[in-house]
Structure formats: structure tokens, C-alpha cells
Amino acid sequence: MSDGAPQYGLNQDQLDFLEMIRKMVQEKVTPRAAEIDEKAEYPQDIRKLFADHDLFGLPFEERHGGLGTGDLMLVAAIEEIAKGCASSSLIVAAQDLSSLPLKLHGSEELQDRILPKMAAGEMIGAFCLSEPDAGSDPGAMRTRAMKTDGGWILNGAKNWITNAGVADMYVTFAVSDPDVKYSRGITAFAVMADSDGFRIDALEHKMGMKGSPTGQPVYEDVFVPDENVIGEVGKGFICAMQTLDRSRLGIAAQAVGIAQGATDFAADYAKERIAFGKPINQLQGIQFKLADMETKTAAARELLYRAASMAETDDPKLGKYSAMAKLFASDVAMDVTTEAVQVLGGYGYVKEYPVERMMRDAKLTQIYEGTNEIQRVVIARSLA
Ligand code: COS
Description:
- By secondary structure, the chain is of the alpha+beta class.
- It has helices at about 10-40, 45-50, 70-85, 85-105, 110-120, 235-270, 285-310, 320-345, 355-365, 370-384; strands spanning about 125-130, 145-150, 150-155, 160, 170-175, 185-190, 200-205, 215-225, 230, 275, 280.
- The strands form 3 sheets. Strands 2, 3, 4, 7 and 8 form a 5-stranded antiparallel sheet that branches. Strands 1-5-6-9 form a 4-stranded mixed sheet. Strands 10-11 form a two-stranded antiparallel ribbon.
- Helix 6 (about 235-270) runs antiparallel to helix 9.
């Protein structure tokens, strides 16, 4: 378990659970990571493993069938999984992201109908905000929702959607009132994968995070009943922003995990690798790299745990802190994994060792759930 967790008020049961996750990742997830990356397949076996060990319950309250263990425990768990396999950690993080709109704004009936299935890992969710021409600027989305008897008809396409093709429920944001100014006319809907007119177009071929499918949901006259509207009509944009304020913690956790995984691997390698007649961890050039990697990762973790603690108390500065944690941790992950490749030299650049995969996976944490440039916009606005 990471150095930080015990100091942040996790109780003994939670620490024991984290220790169980650490061992499970070491024994069953890490050994699968290279193959998951190579085949670029969603790991159904890991999904089942997580369901069997209650990991899907982490983002949910007890009243919805979850563990009710809170945000700090959730990020610490995502971090532990990401140390061994970032794609697998996204199984839990994406379940959090896609359930947040329902948890924050869904009706009681909708929550009771959907959340317990998500908490059990029986139903997988996806969060559909971005579009081909609306990524950083989701207010410019074109997907349309038209009112009809008993519900809404959706038409349009989303892009860059995690869990495309494996999800059973797609939280979809669409313009429900084009006459209202910009983001103000957007509504959130829970769209079931088996709805007529709904399909997933081709999946992306990505640089990293290959075990997590990314694709383009398409909506052609998809009927969504009124009871699947999430929150108030016209308040979908705010729902999306509030979701991201929380879900970005999951990406920061993933980044901290990737960075720690790369640091640990490079440190172990440097103990064994001999150059100039001694292990390379006795060479100052390598020592300084490892020291910086460990320090930056620890600093990123502190900011992440601080932000996660703020999520537990609904602190009004959460959005700023989750943006700072995501920005800082993902930049650290990119930096640290690049250095890990350098410590391993030629071995770092080949697939026999995991650090090149970690470097490719780290890159996505600087981009998704808001590019780091968007995080800077969010942080700067909080200062204005
Ligand atoms: N919490 C609650 N409400 C928020 C909010 C937040 N964090 N951020 C914005 N809002 C509200 C505003 O208060 C405003 O409400 P009113 O209509 O009542 O005035 C409304 O949302 C529109 O806000 P704003 O004008 O600031 O929106 P912008 O279009 O300028 O967007 C950013 C602001 C850049 C922050 C937003 O577009 C963003 O986060 N973009 C990145 C999206 C992203 O992360 N995409 C990744 C895809 S998900 S994997």
C-alpha cells in the first residue's frame, strides 16, 4: 500500500481492504497487464475479479448497494490498481464517472433502478459528453433531444467515450432547448445500450490505455423515457461540470498509481542492473533520478488525498483542488514514467519491461476528463 494512506484517516478495515487489493493486483492483475495492452481488449476476467471482490462497490453508498467507504478509499484503491495496470484501474474510475450524474441529480426511482446494479458490477456505465467538434468546449455540442409523448428523441453522435461497446448504460448530454443560450439548454439522459437506434461506431486505436475501449456512440431517433431524464431539464451542463469536479480525482489517482508503479519498477531494476562494476542505483546520476521520481509522486499523492478529503466534506473549493490534483499528478506521471524509461535505458524502450506501457498510459491522464490546459482554466477562474 502507498506510504500516504494510513495518515489520512482511513480506518483499519479500510486499510485491510486496501492491502487485499494490493495483493490481488500483484498476483492477478499485474501479470495480465502486458497481454491486456498487447491485445487491446477489455479484460472481462478482471471485471469479474473486481466484481467478485466488491471493488465496484467502492464508488457507491450503502443505500445503493455500495461499500460506503468514501472518496479517499476510492482514490487509494484506483491508485493501487493503476500501479500494476492502468487500463484495469479505469474499470473502477469509469464506473464512478458514469454514475456520478445519477448520484448527484438522478431521481430516487432512477437511482434505485440503476445504482445497485452498477455497484454490483452487473451494469457498466459510460459518460457521453464529448463530441467530434466539442471536446474542451462541451457547451458547443450538437446532439439534439426533442420532446415527444412520454419522453425524448435523441439524435447525434458522441466521441472519445470510455467503455463504448461494453457499457450497458450511457449517460448522454444533449441539447434539449436550442433557443436557450449555449450550455443552458443541455439535459442529461440515461440511455440504455439496447435502445432502438443506438449503436457504437468504430473503436479508436490508441497509443495507450489500450485495455479500455474508446468509441463513438451514435443516436438515430433513440427514444428515452421521461423517467430516464437525469435531474432537471436544461441543467445538464451543470450536472456534467459537477461530475467532472469529482471524477477528476479518479484520473489523478490513476496518474499517482502509474507514477508509483514506474518508480518502484525502476528502483528494483537499478538494484540489479550492473554497470561500471556496481549496481546502477549506486551511481549518482541514477540516484538523483529515482529520488526526484519518488518525491514528485509523493507530492502528487498529497494533493490528491487532500482533494479527496475535500470531496468527502463537499468543500466548495473541491473543483479547484480536483483540477489541481489532476493537473499536477498527470504531469508528474508523464515526467516520472519518461524518467523510468531512461533509467532502464534500451530495456526501457522495449515491451519486455512495463515502463514503456506506463509512459503511454500516463499520456492519456494529461488529456482525458479535461485536458491539462482546461484544468488550468478552471484553476485560474477560481482565482479571478
Ligand atoms: N460546478 C457547477 N456549475 C458550473 C461549474 C461547476 N464546476 N462550472 C460551470 N458551471 C456552470 C456555470 O455557473 C454556468 O451556470 P449558469 O448557466 O447558471 O450561469 C454554466 O455552468 C456555464 O458555465 P461557463 O459559462 O463557465 O461554461 P464554459 O462553457 O465557459 O465552460 C469550462 C467552462 C472550460 C470549465 C468547461 O467547458 C469544461 O470543463 N470543459 C472541459 C470539459 C471536459 O472536461 N471534457 C472532457 C470530457 S469528459 S471525459
